[in-house]
Design goal:
The protein folds into four domains: 61 residues, 2-Layer Sandwich (Signal recognition particle alu RNA binding heterodimer, srp9/1); 179 residues, 3-Layer(aba) Sandwich (Rossmann fold); 71 residues, Helicase, Ruva Protein, domain 3 (Orthogonal Bundle), CATH 1.10.8; 190 residues, Peptidase M41 (Methane Monooxygenase Hydroxylase, Chain G, domain 1), CATH 1.20.58.760. The chain is built from 20 helices and 16 strands. The strands form four sheets. A six-stranded mixed sheet has the order 6-8-9-10-7-11. A five-stranded mixed sheet has the order 1-4-3-2-5, with helices on one face. The protein starts with 17 loop residues before the first helix and ends in a 46-residue tail after the last helix.
C-alpha cells in the first residue's frame, strides 16, 4: 500500500517533533543575531573603571604611563601594564597641565561614529522576534496543527492508513462470514475491475456497515484496507463538525480532493450518524452546520461531478436516524448488516482471540461459545482477556477452563464483592428471594434453564439467578414472556410467603421494573393483549435536535387507561402464577434457600440434584459461608437483585432491557 499522504504532515517514526525542530531553528536564528551584535558593537577594551579623583591621585603618584582623552571617556595604561578608564569632570581644564607636570604622555581620542548595521540590528531586534514568533505560531497552526489550526479549518482530517498502522486481513475477521463475503467482492473489484466491467457491472460507490456496537464494523474496514492494496483514508463522522459554519462542508470537499488524487481508493467514515442524521431537526430554516456538511457529502458522493474509483465505506449502529437521501442506491449501494454472531461465529471468534494466550488442554471453545449467547466480538475478546488476567493473578502458566468460567461469570454478573458485610437477616432474605426466582423458573416450561444461582454480592446486586438459553434465540414467544414475568415476581412472592406482608423488602425493585417494561411492550408494541388488540400504541422517537429518545403513546385517554389496566393485569397474573408455585412447593423453597445459605453459589445441575435427592454431593469443598461476615444491623436488604441473565442494578439506576 502506498505511503503517500496528502493530509497533515506526520512526524517520522523516531524522528524529532516538528515543534522541537521549529524551536531549534528559531533558537539558532536568535543566537546568530546575538553573535552579530556582539561582533559589530563597539568594544570597550579600557579595562578597570576608576573614579576621576582616584585617577588624578595616581597621576600625581607617578603610576600612570599614558592616557587618551576623549569627549566622554579617558582611557589609559598604568606603568605596571594594567589598563583603566574614567569619566572626566565637565569643565576641568587643568588635566593637561597635571599630566605634563608628571611626565604622562597623553593624546586625544577621535570621536567614534556609530555602526549603522549594528544600530539597525539593535533597534529592530524586538520587532524581528515578535514577527518570528507570530510566523512560527501561524505555521504550526496551519501545518503542524493539522486541520484544527487557525488557517486550516477547512482541511480534511482524513488520515491514510499504511502498513505501519498494523495490517489486518480478512483472516483476522471471524464469525461474520456473510458481511465479509460482500466486502471481499469490493476488494476483488478494486484488484481486477475488468472481470466485472466486461459484463456491464459497475464498481459500487459505497457500502454502509450496520450493526450493534462491538460486532466488528471497524475491524472489517481495517481488513479491507489490509487486503485492497489501494490507498485507504479513515475519518470519523464527528471530525466534520465544528462550531464554525461552513467548515464541515469544506472538509468534505478537501477529503474528496485528496481521494481523487489517490484514486482508486477507499474512504472509511466511522460513526457516520454524527453527520448523516435526517435533516429538519435544526432551528429556524433548518440550515445548521451539520446539515450543510451532509448536503456537501451527498453532492460529493453522487452529484454532477462523478468521483470514479472512490469507494465510500461507512459504519453506524444507528441506521434509523440516517437521512434517506444518504441511503439510496448510487450513494450507499449496499447496506451490509454485521450481526451479533451465532454459536458457530462465537466459536470462531474465540479461536482467533485464544491464539494470543497459552491455553490449558481442558479449554473447549465450543463449550464457552454455548454459554455466551448474545455476546458480540468485542465481548468475546474481553472475555478472553479477563480469563488471561485471572490466570496471571493466580500465578498460572496456562489459562484453564476454570478461568474462562470465572471470567464469564464476572462479565455476565459482575465482580464478586465478598468483602461486603451483610447481616444474617439480609443473607437469609436474599437466599429466599433467589430461591423463589429459581423455583418458579424450574416450574415454568418455557423458561430458560438455570445456569447459576448465588447470594454472593456481584456488581450492584446482592444476589442473582442466572439463566442461559439452550440455543440462540432470534424471536420470543408469548409463553416465554409470561414465564419471564412469573420468574421476575418469584423473588418478591417468596419474601412475602416466608417473612410476611410487612417484611417485603425493596430487593424486587429491578424485578418490578423489568416486568413492567416487558408487560408494556407486550401490550403497546407486540399486540399480545386481547382487549387492546394487535395495534402499536407506542413508538420511540428521536428527541428535539436529536437529543435522547422519547416514548410517545398514541391513543385517546380511554385507550391509555385500557393499556394501563392490561399492563397491570399481565403483571398481577404473573404474580398469581408465582404465588401458586411457591405455596404448593414451600418445602422445596426452604430446602433451596438453606442450601444457598450453606454453599452461597449453586449451579443449575446442583439445584436440580438438590430438588430430586434432597442433598448436594460436594466432597471436596468445605461447607458454610466463607467470606461474608455477619454483623448486626438493619434486616432490610438493598435493592437490585436480578433474577436472570444480565447485570443486576440498584434502585437508582436503569434496569437492563431483559433478563
Amino acid at each position: 500500500m502506498s505511503d503517500q499522504n496528502n493530509g497533515p504532515e506526520q512526524p517520522e517514526e523516531g524522528g524529532p517533533n516538528p515543534w522541537m525542530k521549529s524551536l531549534m531553528v528559531w533558537g539558532g536564528i536568535f543566537m546568530v543575531l546575538l553573535l552579530v551584535v556582539s561582533v559589530f558593537a563597539p568594544q570597550d577594551a579600557a579595562g578597570e573603571a576608576v573614579k576621576y579623583s582616584e585617577f588624578r591621585t595616581k597621576v600625581v603618584e607617578g603610576q600612570v604611563a599614558e592616557v587618551r582623552i576623549g569627549e566622554d571617556r579617558i582611557v589609559g595604561k598604568m606603568k605596571d601594564g594594567d589598563t583603566f578608564s574614567t569619566v572626566p569632570v565637565a569643565g576641568d581644564t587643568s588635566l593637561p597641565t597635571l599630566l605634563e607636570e608628571n611626565d604622562v604622555a597623553f593624546s586625544g581620542a577621535p570621536k567614534e561614529e556609530p555602526n549603522l548595521l549594528v544600530y539597525i540590528l539593535i533597534n529592530a531586534l524586538p520587532f524581528i522576534l515578535i514577527l518570528g514568533l507570530a510566523f512560527f505560531a501561524l505555521r504550526q497552526m496551519q501545518k503542524g496543527g493539522g486541520a484544527g489550526g487557525a488557517m486550516g479549518f477547512g482541511k480534511s482530517k482524513a488520515k491514510m492508513l499504511t502498513e505501519k498502522s498494523g495490517k489486518v486481513t480478512f483472516d483476522d475477521v471471524a464469525g461474520i462470514d456473510e458481511a465479509r463475503e460482500e466486502l471481499e467482492e469490493i476488494v476483488e473489484f478494486l484488484k481486477d475491475p475488468s472481470r466485472f466491467s466486461k459484463l456491464g457491472g459497475q464498481i459500487p460507490k459505497g457500502a454502509l456497515l450496520v450493526g450493534s456496537p462491538g460486532t466488528g464494523k471497524t475491524l472489517l474496514a481495517r481488513a479491507i484496507a489490509g487486503e485492497a492494496g489501494v490507498p485507504f483514508f479513515t475519518i470519523s463522522g464527528s471530525d466534520f463538525v465544528e462550531m464554525f459554519v461552513g467548515v464541515g462542508a469544506s472538509r468534505v470537499r478537501d477529503m474528496f480532493e485528496q481521494a481523487k488524487k489517490n484514486a482508486p481508493c477507499i474512504v472509511f467514515i466511522d460513526e457516520i450518524d454524527a453527520v448523516g442524521r435526517s435533516r429538519g431537526h435544526g432551528l429556524g430554516n433548518s440550515n445548521d452546520e451539520r446539515e450543510q456538511t451532509l448536503n456537501q457529502l451527498l453532492v460529493e458522493m453522487d452529484g454532477f461531478e462523478a468521483n470514479e474509483g472512490i469507494i465510500i465505506i461507512a459504519a453506524t449502529n444507528r441506521p434509523d436516524v440516517l437521512d434517506p437521501a444518504l441511503l439510496r442506491p448510487g450513494r450507499f449501494d449496499r447496506q451490509v448488516v454485521v450481526p451479533v454472531p451465532d454459536i458457530e461465529g462465537r466459536e470462531k471468534i474465540l479461536e482467533v482471540h485464544m491464539k494470543k494466550v497459552p491455553l490449558a488442554p481442558d479449554v473447549n471453545s465450543r463449550t464457552i461459545a454455548r454459554g455466551t449467547p448474545g455476546f458480540s466480538g468485542a465481548d468475546l475478546a474481553n472475555l478472553v482477556n479477563e480469563a488471561a488476567l485471572l490466570a496471571a493473578r493466580r500465578n498460572k502458566r496456562l489459562v484453564a477452563m476454570q478461568e474462562f468460567e470465572d471470567a464469564k461469570d464476572k462479565v455476565m454478573m459482575g465482580s464478586e464483592r465478598r468483602s461486603m458485610v451483610m447481616t444474617d437477616d439480609e443473607k437469609k432474605m436474599t437466599a429466599y428471594h433467589e430461591a423463589g426466582h429459581a423455583l418458579v423458573s424450574l416450574n415454568e416450561p418455557a423458561s430458560d434453564p438455570i445456569h447459576k444461582a448465588t447470594i454472593i454480592p456481584r456488581g450492584r446486586a446482592l444476589g442473582m439467578v442466572m439463566r442461559l438459553p439452550e440455543r440462540d434465540n432470534y424471536s420470543y414467544h408469548r409463553d416465554k414472556m409470561h414465564a419471564d414475568l412469573a420468574v421476575a415476581m418469584g423473588g418478591r412472592v417468596a419474601e412475602e410467603i416466608i417473612f410476611g406482608h410487612d417484611k417485603v423488602s425493596s430487593g424486587a425493585s429491578s424485578d418490578i421494573q423489568y416486568a413492567t417494561k416487558l408487560a408494556r411492550n407486550m401490550v403497546t408494541k407486540w399486540g399480545m393483549s386481547e382487549k387492546v388488540g394487535p395495534l402499536q400504541y407506542e413508538e420511540s422517537q428521536e428527541g428535539y435536535l436529536g437529543m435522547g429518545q422519547t416514548a410517545r403513546t398514541m391513543g385517546s385517554e380511554q385507550t391509555n387507561k385500557l393499556i394501563d389496566a392490561e399492563i397491570k393485569e399481565l403483571v398481577e397474573s404473573a404474580l398469581k402464577r408465582a404465588t401458586d408455585v411457591l405455596k404448593t412447593q414451600e418445602d422445596k423453597l426452604h430446602l433451596l434457600a438453606q442450601a444457598m445459605l450453606e454453599y452461597e453459589t449453586l449451579t443449575g445441575d446442583e439445584i436440580n440434584e438438590l430438588l430430586e435427592n434432597g442433598k448436594i454431593d460436594r466432597p471436596d469443598e468445605p461447607k458454610g459461608p466463607s467470606a461474608v461476615r455477619p454483623v448486626h444491623g438493619s434486616s432490610i436488604p438493598q435493592a437490585g437483585r436480578k433474577f436472570g441473565g444480565g447485570k443486576g442494578d440498584s434502585d437508582s439506576g436503569p434496569a437492563p432491557a431483559g433478563a
